[in-house]
């Protein structure tokens, strides 16, 4: 195998690693509809969703199933998705609450911090 063929093969392999697997949950449209219905009734809720498949079927892992450190309060709790099997300590929350000025300021500061990190790397 020539050197150029090896380079092309490595490049394809790297590009394959960079591609993100896009998985959409069948429950996501139902979740959005339910949140909008609750918002019309002026009921505001936060729902935990899986960051991988966007399913609302996320539950906290019990201490007997491998999360004893969170049970003792040493680490944040671990969550798992019952649809895709994702398991981590961070979870995304979907909400229908109106965005306040404080929320906008926090989002702007986070975006500025990300932009500064990108500039430093270059």
Describe this entry's structure for a reader.
The chain is of the alpha+beta class and 122 residues long. It has a domain at 22-97. Helices cover 44% and strands 13% of the residues. The chain has four helices and five strands. The chain has helices at residues 3-18, 28-40, 68-71, 101-121, and strands at 46-49, 58-60, 79-81, 87-88, 92-95. The chain has a three-stranded antiparallel β-sheet, with no helix packed on it. Strands 1-5 form a two-stranded antiparallel sheet. The longest helix is centred in the C-terminal third of the chain and has 21 residues, at 101-121. It is extended. It starts with a helix and ends with a helix.
- Gross morphology is extended
Fraction of helical residues: 40-55%
Contiguous helical run count: 4
Ranges where pLDDT stays below 50 over 5 or more residues in a row are 17-21
| Run of helices and strands | HHEEHEEEH
Strand order within the widest sheet?
2-3-4
Radius of gyration: 20 Å
What's the pLDDT, averaged over the residues?
A: 77
Number of strands: 5
Straight-line distance between termini: 35 Å
Largest sheet: 3 strands, antiparallel
Strand content: 5-15%
Structural class: alpha+beta
Question: How do the helices and strands line up, and which of them pair or pack?
Answer:
Blueprint: H1 3-18, H2 28-40, E1 46-49, E2 58-60, H3 68-71, E3 79-81, E4 87-88, E5 92-95, H4 101-121
């Amino acid at each position: 195998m020539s050197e150029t063929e090896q380079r092309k093969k490595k490049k394809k392999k790297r590009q394959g690693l960079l591609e993100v697997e896009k998985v959409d949950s069948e429950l996501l449209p139902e979740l959005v509809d339910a949140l909008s219905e609750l918002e019309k009734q002026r009921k505001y809720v936060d729902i935990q969703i899986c960051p991988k498949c966007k399913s609302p079927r996320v539950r906290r892992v019990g201490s007997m199933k491998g999360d004893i450190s969170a049970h003792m309060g040493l680490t944040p709790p671990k969550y798992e998705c019952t649809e895709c099997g994702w398991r981590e300590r961070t979870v995304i929350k979907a909400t229908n609450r109106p965005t306040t000025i404080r929320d906008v300021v926090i989002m702007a500061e986070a975006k500025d911090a990300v932009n500064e990190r990108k500039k430093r790397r270059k």
